[in-house]
Here is the input.
Amino acid sequence: MGLSQDNILRKLFRIVNYSLELLLVRLYNKSFLGSNDIAAQFHSLYYSSPERTWNNTRWMGYRTMRCPLDLWVYQEILYEIKPDVVIETGTNEGGGAHFLASIMDVIGKGRVIGVDIEEVDNRADHKRITYVKGSSISNDIVKKVSKMIESDHVVLVILDSDHNMPHVLEEMKIYSKFVTKGSYMIVEDSNVNGHPIMPNWGPGPFEAIQRFLEESNSFEVDKNREKFYLSFNPDGYLKKRTD
Ligand SMILES: C[S@@+](CC[C@H](N)C(=O)[O-])C[C@H]1O[C@@H](n2cnc3c(N)ncnc32)[C@H](O)[C@@H]1O
Here is the structure.
């Protein structure tokens, strides 16, 4: 009984949260159309119509809240790096994880470890995906994840959970250690807080990236990964230095 009440409350919270978000992005898009920057204008237009764009993007039937141009870049990175393991925080329905697993099927190697604080109904099922439930920054979860990785594994990390700066920064500090030299730590949704969308979001992934780079020189931003002009992850493709 308690559990189902909890589920109903979570669903209600999601609906209210989503409606507010939709209202905000629409208002913002209206005020943005004066800009001369075509890429930023398109970014704003794309983001402010979630019901036809980012909230309605599917891979093999499973929703993934990602920009298809970023998914294409993921495919290119996976082919180049051929990771043994991808750690994805914030797996949600598993659409993004399923996309990665499908590419791994074609490449012939790789597993996805998906971490999420919630266990979403009808999550994508794939033999290459292992789901882990809990907060990405909790000690228990980090221990669980590290036990699933061998010392000779090539590891890539994608951070797509809580998009507030303190959480992202903490995740970056924790999960950067798992990333193999020459591989990537991808920080999703650094476009919020005015980069260029949702200027009132507050410090988020973009600010966490800048702070992380001030404190550590083991990664560099790979701007080439933003070649398609629209990326949800400005400065978010971080390559681990090989020297
Ligand atoms: C933007 S969605 C992720 C979208 C998903 N990667 C995709 O491809 O569709 C964010 C997810 O992060 C999860 N989340 C929020 N805080 C978290 C935390 N502390 N640890 C792990 N997951 C968290 C939420 O439950 C939600 O499912």
Observations:
- The chain has two domains: 2-59, 62-240.
- Helices lie at 2-32, 38-47, 68-81, 95-107, 139-147, 165-175, 205-215.
- The CA atoms of residues 85 and 149 lie 7 Å apart.
- Residues 64-66, 89-92, 95-96, 115-118, 135-136, 160-162 surround S-adenosylmethionine (CB under 6 Å).
